[in-house]
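Subject: Sanity check before I submit

Could someone independently write out the structure tokens for this chain? I want to compare against mine line by line before I put it in a report. The sequence has 64 residues.
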Amino acid sequence: MFVLTLSGLKMMGLSNTIAFSVLAAEIVFGTLAWAWIRHSLGFSFFTFLDKRATRNPAVSETKE
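---
Independent answer below. Compare away.
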């Protein structure tokens, strides 16, 4: 996804500064959007927290 975005921006003739600024915004806002979608579906923001809770039930009991 990132490679396609950068390639497309460079083909349109944008400078490296603008292209990498768009890439940084894509990474930040994409991550936030993914976290918001996971949260709205009832999952935690991070998958490693889900995995830790299923391996160690005591961890999930203390967080509730």
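---
OP: Matches mine. For the report I'm noting this point. Helices lie at 2-11, 16-40, 47-55, 57-63.
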